[in-house]
Amino acid sequence: MSPNTATSGDARPLVSIQHVSKQFANGTIAVRDVNLDLAAGEFVSLLGPSGCGKSTLLRMIAGLGEPSVGTIDWPGAGGANGEHELGFVFQDPTLMPWATALGNVVLPMQLKRMPQGEAEARGAAMLALVGLKGFERSYPRELSGGMKMRVSIARALVTQPKILLMDEPFAALDEITRHKLNDDLLGLWETNRFSAVFVTHSVFESVYLSQRIVVMAARPGRVMADLRVEAPYPRDELFRTSADYAHWCRIASEKLKEAISA
Ligand SMILES: Nc1ncnc2c1ncn2[C@@H]1O[C@H](COP(=O)(O)OP(=O)(O)OP(=O)(O)O)[C@@H](O)[C@H]1O
Question: Would the keyword Transcription regulation turn up in this protein's UniProt record (predicted)?
Answer without folding.
Answer: no
